[in-house]
Amino acid sequence: MQIEEHLGSPRSAWTSGRGEMADVVVSSRSRLARNLEGFAFPGRLTSEIATQVLGRVQGAVQGFGSGWSFVKLSELSAVDRQVLVEKHLISPQQMQAPEQAALAVRDDEGLSLMVNEEDHLRLQAFRPGLAVRETLDEALRADDQLEETLDYAFTPELGYLTACPTNVGTGLRISVMLHLGGLVRTRGIAQLLQVLPKLGLAVRGLYGEGTEAAGDLFQISNQITLGQTEEEVAAAIERAAQQIIDQERAARRMLKEQALQQTQDRVYRAFGVLRYAQLLGGEEAMQLLSELRLGVEMGMLQVSPEVVNEMLVTALPGFLTRTMGHDLQTLEERAARARLIRERLQKEGI
Amino acid sequence: MQIEEHLGSPRSAWTSGRGEMADVVVSSRSRLARNLEGFAFPGRLTSEIATQVLGRVQGAVQGFGSGWSFVKLSELSAVDRQVLVEKHLISPQQMQAPEQAALAVRDDEGLSLMVNEEDHLRLQAFRPGLAVRETLDEALRADDQLEETLDYAFTPELGYLTACPTNVGTGLRISVMLHLGGLVRTRGIAQLLQVLPKLGLAVRGLYGEGTEAAGDLFQISNQITLGQTEEEVAAAIERAAQQIIDQERAARRMLKEQALQQTQDRVYRAFGVLRYAQLLGGEEAMQLLSELRLGVEMGMLQVSPEVVNEMLVTALPGFLTRTMGHDLQTLEERAARARLIRERLQKEGI
Q1: pLDDT at B100
Q2: CATH classification of the domain holding A95
Q3: Are residues B182 and B49 in the same domain?
Q4: Which residues of A touch B328 (CB under 8 A)?
């Protein structure tokens, strides 16, 4: 598969809407940070040495066999890099500093590697729904395979060494993306957001650190990578996710019992606007898609969650610009977003 | 036709959406105020004498032949009387004081008589579109016919005598109902509303004196009834209407040239919300129907104007309560309004 195909499709490993607890959990991700022994961290690498790192990782990735694409980010346009961020294949940071950075991605986008980002190597496994252990297993298996070729920076005392001390140890960051539409609407979200950091969990928006929880999507991840085994981290995230799922479901039951008509009204209005608007701003689209998602999750509306996820990606500025083939003025961008969403819903025959 | 059928249907003489200049003019109406010679005006009538007046008018109406209903307002529920107001068959004033008041209405609702309102007799002819002369001719013909039986209070100096001095003379009030969605959106409406009174024209809302211009519907009527012939009044109203129509069309051209996408967006969003909302307040419904109407008038949307008019009547509180068969709590009213509008659009296959 060519990188072009990844860039052109709103589908990704996490967009199918299937999996466990898919009424609350959009996706699960396990990410391992690794660095090569004998090389400075990327932030201190000369271009020449970075090229060597790139070569080694690319060689190791070939061990994964066919069904993978490998692309140097410097060969992509800024818009293409933005699309990769929007599909969660690279980080916003990597988008900004692409010189020696690269991406290796499996055809289904369920497994991918960022090269020469903050660390030499960031391996991530993505799945829809609650699949913490599955993504961890997949990431660790891929990691083992890479380790057959690559020599990682590792000490028995600290574990894997990473550019940022917050990743030292397991180098593992597990995150789950949750749609907390019920808790946002019943105002239970504020308390939850206060409690999670005390449990060693970070809460972030759709695109990780520093991004807002647009569309009521919250990313919960572990803050600690040192002094806990991978299994312990996975168990903690799973436990936390299950508790949040319970709270979210309780919030939805409360909506059903105490504000059924108002909730249905918001869901169906959102559908009506998405189905017919001719201009749609990015923020409004996210908000409407969240209403729609909640309606789907609560069984009020027959739209597949996959369609909701694909519309979400479609509505993002990078993907939109790429689809249109040129930079967009505000009005044009709003018109394109509305048209693509409209057409997607029409295509579903609804 | 029974009064029950009038009460149960949102259709009326003015709702067909046809007629001249129907892209701006919803309807035209000519109303004649008349009083019987030898009787005090209704405000000073005893119940007994009022009953005599009622009997005489009822007798005269029988001269119109079949195809008419006659009903004493005291025999109707408050909700039924409200529906008659909403269909423009009686005035809001008459709704409040129904004791000896009555309504005679032709099956098509294009001609009707209020009895013992402010005057003994108010005869009105209604038509869709711009039809000032047609409604005047029809009202005058009916008036002539009634005069074969009834003896009107009339002096050669003043003309027809009426309870309120503002009606003395011809007793004629001609009004046209205009949808000025373009002028409201381009802010040209403010100037127009300042100019009209200087031309001897009154501007009122959907339900006449003291009502607001909900849904961007404005009623323009003559203020003067004395010292002008009926023909002069009709010519003045027609001239004014034609000028306002020109201005409104110019405003719509401006919207098309300078804000086409924004206008289409508002129209289609309104359609989407009307088509899918589960709860709709009365004011919001009027506003959304105005957007929809503008879209229909500007050729952006394939909905028949008749459907828009019928939805407007359907959404009004009296009609809604009657349809549901009992007094409605706020939430129930909003749910019923949304459902009836939704079903009407579904029925159209859109």
Answers
A1: 84
A2: 3.30.590.10
A3: yes
A4: none
Asked if B277 lies within 8 A of A271 by C-beta distance, the reply is no
pLDDT in tens, B131-183: 999 999 999 999 999 999 999 999 999 999 998 888 889 999 999 999 999 99
CB B243 within 8 Å of CB B192? no
Are residues A109 and A238 located together in one domain of the fold? yes
Provide the ipTM. 0.88
Say whether residue B329 is in contact with chain A using an 8 A CB cutoff.
Answer: no
* From B265, B278, B331, residue closest to A278, measured CB to CB: B265
Interchain CB contact of B265 with A (< 8 Å)? yes
Whether residue A39 is found in the same domain as residue A163: yes
Which residues contact residue B337 at a Cβ distance below 8 angstroms, ignoring those fewer than 6 apart? B280, B281, B282, B285, B314, B315, B320
CA distance A73 to chain B (A): 37
Residues 6+ apart with CB under 8 A from A177: A14, A25, A26, A27, A28, A29, A206, A217, A218, A219
Show the domain range for A290: 259-347
Higher-pLDDT residue of B302 and A212 is B302
Number of domains in chain A: 2
Rounded CA separation B192/B183 (Å): 9
User: Does residue A265 sit at the B interface (CB-CB below 8 Å)?
Assistant: yes
> How far is B207 from chain A, CA to nearest CA, in Å?
29
Convert the pLDDT of each residue in A6-52 to its tens digit: 999 999 988 998 899 999 999 999 999 999 999 988 888 888 888 99
Task: Please tell me the distance in Å from B303's CA to the nearest CA on chain A.
Answer: 14
Q: Enter the tokens of residue B232.
A: 């002069």
Helix, strand, coil percent values for chain B (each to nearest 5):
50, 15, 30
Reported as type and span, the H/E element at residue A113 is strand A111-115
Answer yes or no: are the C-beta atoms of A84 and A74 closer than 8 Å: no
Average pLDDT, rounded, for chain B: 91
